[in-house]
Amino acid sequence: MTVTWEERGWERLAAGVGRCRLPGWDCTAGLVLGADTALMVDAGSSLGEGARLRSAAEELAGGRVTHLALTHAHFDHVFGAAAFAGAAVYAAVGAEAVLAGERDALRHDAVHHGLPAADAEEAALALVPPRHLVSGERTLDLGGGRQVLLANVGPGHTAHDLVVLVPGEREVVFCGDLVEESGEPQAGPDAVPSRWPAALDRLLALGGEDALYVPGHGAVVDAAFVRRQRDALAARFGVS
User: What angle do CA 44, 142, 220 make, to 5 degrees?
Assistant: First the structure.
């Protein structure tokens, strides 16, 4: 029997495209289905959460998750990545150095934000840097006429921000934390505020006026929302 997105607690965005909002930090994880393939967008905040995501995704896909795209190297988006063993992992160039060399900082940040210390330690030790790095744009062919575009549009929220664009009747854009709806965009010590508005300009140019923009946290938004957030960030950080 076919399982629907809604039965799994996921939000269907387009044919073969959906996402779920994870508990704790209201973090988005996305899923794009191809022909005997499945692309996961972000991996959750712990190995346990990653395993639950993989189980739900593979039930929806009717097969295994074959690809994983990490939008940026923050714990709530990457600490579940080791649960996707065997998947080809993609990230923006530079994210691999963060995941390889800053595990202690990621673990500390996770614990600071409320992840149990044992879960943070387990996930940090299991982190494997992505092997497929995107410096500009890269198209993935998932089969069955399904292609997705991975675009390195940053820096902005971090120095290494990747977005995922899914063409269709209405394009779906997974934005990572370049866009946030459930709270003000977070600019931590690894943010590049002077470049963030320009990153959103590139995101909008890729997605266009009619796309569905899926933020890293919160409800799906439209181009007008992204433009307002872009202008607010420019004013906040004193850039054009």
Answer: 45
Cα–chain center distance at 235 = 26
3-class SS at 177?
A: strand
E-strand stretches of the chain: 11-14, 17-21, 28-33, 38-41, 67-69, 88-92, 132-134, 137-143, 146-152, 162-166, 172-180, 212-217
Interatomic CA distance for residues 236 and 230, integer angstroms: 10
Least confident residue range of 4-8, 68-72, 78-82, 150-154 = 4-8
Whole-angstrom Cα distance, residue 116 to residue 123? 11
pTM score above 0.85: yes
Structure tokens belonging to residue 209: 């006026």
What is the token pair recorded at 232?
């607010």
Q: Which two tokens stand for residue 95?
A: 């994210």
Three-class SS state of 13: strand
Look up residue 166 and give its DSSP letter. E
Q: What is the pLDDT of residue 1?
A: 60
In a 3-state reduction of DSSP, which class is residue 106?
helix
- Is residue 208 within 8 A of residue 171, CB to CB? The reply is yes
